[in-house]
Design goal:
single chain, 504 residues, six-stranded antiparallel beta sheet, 23 strands, globular, Nucleotide-bd_a/b_plait_sf, RRM domain-containing protein, RNA binding, phosphoprotein
């Protein structure tokens, strides 16, 4: 059984790397039919069902619509980037029917077949009072995952108000971007329609829970907080929207002015029949959400382009290695270790949105057995004061503003960057074609970082002076450590080349 599981896992990984969607679906179906009966024996029945194989555009409302025929649903937890979800039923019998039906016949959610199994959890953890409709769950907690573009009160109002009348919005940016949105009544409809949706296509994904407060206290109206009940509120003119497969289209309109792309149409408002439209008469159900204006992104008084990073290994981390890790999410201007707080550094990035991306993807990851804590600093610039020597002999301060290794220095460069969370696979490029797998493995050993377990070189033109490919490691922590140490490492065989590693 273990051998078969490993075989299916290997096939799945290879197809995923090659981008074979149909192949992935076939492997998922084979593996499900082969393994589910055994899993039922190993996992005890639970009212919580684990759902896999969801499409990228699925929202909570689609799950409820497809699965409520098995019984009343208490709670749904979306895992959008994994294309999975947890669904808690009121009765054990409902969960039994759901899992059994999924084995015997195809169950489709948002037009794609899904796969079911019992969860190891007996109950989905959620904030206090989330079960009680009378407790005033009219405030939603929004976590914005993969925030490639600015998130302001204008953006969230545009997204949330069509579902119901929004009273107040508060955005906070300490450990990633989160926001609270207050409605006048219980906000189940908004949660169901938006949980798991993308604000912009492929990014700014909403993960929504009920918040603990029952009312928001807003002190001022700006990009980070707004009270729409104030009589002196002056609503801004909002641009006209178009129609596309994401709530606000491909990107904010302000980015198109700088060459990041053209305006894109918007997604229809989630509803029970949005996957069944077949006639042009249904076009009136499409809601055109307006794009935010350029001016609404300027002047984030409470934001900063400086990130504070703590939990750094005192002997193995320095300014260059911080640059190697953080440059995947934005330009790095300066890095400075704080003498008064050991294991802590300030990283000045190109803008506050680069800081948001770094927080989203790097906060809480482990590097050299230490867990990083990445948050927004109260400082708005890194000042080269109190420079001292780190344990490895390097300087505690370094200016990277002029380095050619920054990857967001132009519109062309920025458009080529694929923002990814940490993973066990690294993409390497700009490597001399004469270098061998053994030499790359020896490079890892010499720098005291984990070696890779699989190695793949992409086909290149005969005239190409460099090669690229993939490294696979035992886990993502090993991959992060290798990237931190070897990113931009110079290989002098036979001449000056530079190894660039980035997460695949």
């Amino acid at each position: 059984m273990l051998t078969m599981t490993l075989m299916f896992g290997y096939i799945y990984i290879m197809l995923n790397l090659l981008g074979c969607e149909s192949g992935l679906l076939m492997v998922s179906m084979w593996y499900t039919s082969f393994d589910l009966s055994t899993q039922f024996d190993r996992i005890a029945p639970s009212p919580v069902v684990h759902v896999r194989g969801l499409c990228e555009s699925v929202v909570e409302g689609d799950l409820v619509e497809a699965l409520e025929k098995f019984g009343n649903i208490c709670y749904v937890m979306m895992m959008p980037f994994k294309r999975q979800a947890l669904v808690e039923f009121e009765a054990m019998e409902s969960a039994d029917q759901c899992v059994t039906c999924g084995v015997n016949e195809a169950v489709y959610i948002a037009g794609q077949q899904a796969f079911f199994n019992y969860s190891t959890s007996k109950r989905i953890t959620r904030p206090t009072n989330a079960d009680d409709p009378s407790s005033g769950n009219k405030v939603l907690l929004l976590s914005i995952q993969n925030p490639l573009y600015p998130i302001t009160t204008d953006v969230l109002y545009t997204v949330c108000n069509p579902i119901g009348n929004v009273l107040r919005i508060v955005i906070f940016k300490r450990n990633g971007i989160q926001a609270m949105v207050e409605y006048p009544f219980w906000s189940q409809k908004a949660k169901s329609a938006l949980n798991g949706a993308d604000i912009y296509a492929g990014c700014c994904t909403l993960k929504i829970e009920y918040a603990r407060p029952t009312r928001l206290n807003v002190l001022r109206n700006d990009n980070d907080s707004w009270d729409y009940t104030k009589p002196f509120l002056v609503r801004r003119e909002r641009g006209k929207g178009r129609q596309r497969q994401a709530i606000l289209g491909e990107h904010p309109s302000s980015y198109s002015d700088n060459g990041y792309g053209s305006h894109c149409p918007l997604l229809p408002l989630p509803s029970n029949n949005r996957y069944k439209r077949s006639s042009p008469h249904d076009a009136q159900e499409v809601v055109a959400y307006p794009l935010p204006q350029t001016s609404s992104y300027m002047g984030h008084a409470s934001s900063s382009s400086v990130a504070m990073v703590s939990g750094l290994h005192p002997a193995k981390m320095n300014c260059t290695r911080i640059f190697n890790l953080f440059c995947l999410y934005g330009n790095i201007e300066k890095v400075k270790f704080m003498k008064s707080v050991p294991g802590t550094a300030l990283v000045e990035m190109g803008d506050e949105y680069a800081v948001d991306r770094a927080i989203t993807h790097l906060n809480s990851i482990k590097v050299f057995s230490k867990r990083l804590n990445v948050c927004v600093s109260k400082q708005h610039a890194v000042i080269p004061s109190q420079v001292f020597e780190l344990e490895d002999g390097s300087s505690s301060y370094k200016d990277f503003a002029m380095t050619r290794n920054n990857r967001f220095s132009s519109v062309g460069q920025a458009s080529k960057n694929i923002i990814q969370p940490p993973a066990a696979v690294l993409h390497f490029y700009n490597v001399p074609p004469c270098i061998t797998e053994d030499e790359l493995q020896r490079l890892c050993t010499e720098h005291d970082v984990p070696g890779f377990i699989k190695f793949k070189v992409f086909d290149a033109k005969p005239s190409s002076k460099t090669i690229s490919g993939l490294f696979e490691f035992d886990n993502k922590t090993h991959a992060v450590e290798v990237l931190t140490v070897l990113n931009h490492h110079q290989i002098r065989i036979p001449s000056k080349y530079c190894v660039l590693l980035q997460r695949e």
